[in-house]
Amino acid sequence: MDLGIQGRWALVCASSAGLGLGCARALVREGVHVVINGRNAARLQEAVQQLQPLAAVSGAKVLAVVADVTTDAGRTALFEVAGGPGHAFDILVNNAGGPPPGDFREWDDAIWQQALQANMLTPIALIKAVIDGMAERGFGRIVNITSGAVKAPIDVLGLSNGARSGLTGFVAGLARSGVAARGVTINNLLPGKFDTDRLRQTQRAQAAKSGQSLEAFAAAQARAIPAGRFGNADEFGAACAFLCSQHAGYITGQNWLLDGGQYPGTF
């Protein structure tokens, strides 16, 4: 299927690895010019090297910005990168590393502020920076990578549960505020258990709490998923690319759960 987005510009945050990189790969395959981002220069350069062969085939441009998007300076760097579109992005994929797991009794105000800044306030700031231009041009796709924990909270991920749920509520209102009639959609992707560094960090905390080894705990988790395995970044990226496509203009304000069927509810 031709997604109809060749030549458009996308900003994909936290895309040096994991699900963010999976989204960038899928968009580059479609001929979308991408600005990728990460805080680790070496890791970001590795991501560029992975994307360049795909870009050579599709005609896409790949620009990389070493920056912390949770800061004003970091966000400014994304919009001012040489050769980029400025604020005129057609696609925004919001992503950020999740806050650490733990016991809420140990979290002070500073830790809560960090979680809210990374997983709620920064995505909102980036949306604010691009949404009016998207509406003026008549096309925009905003996808927020949140977490399956928004729908089925995990006890040790209280910081993530709280911050990402706040973003979800904000997006639910904004997506229905009139921008959809001007060609701009806003949706959330809720990953379940994907084979990423983040999953392994969470598993270590949960395994320690349960008294099991990491290997035994991870194997039990995989068995509990109806698909019988953890997800991979490329299939997540494919779902993201579809939501960014011209075919997804009638999908907005939605929370897509990608979890291999693990969530047991109907809704």
TrEMBL record:
- Do you know which Pfam families this protein is assigned to? adh_short_C2
Give the source's domain of life in one word.
Answer: Bacteria
Q: What's the family?
A: Belongs to the short-chain dehydrogenases/reductases (SDR) family.
> What is the protein named?
3-oxoacyl-ACP reductase
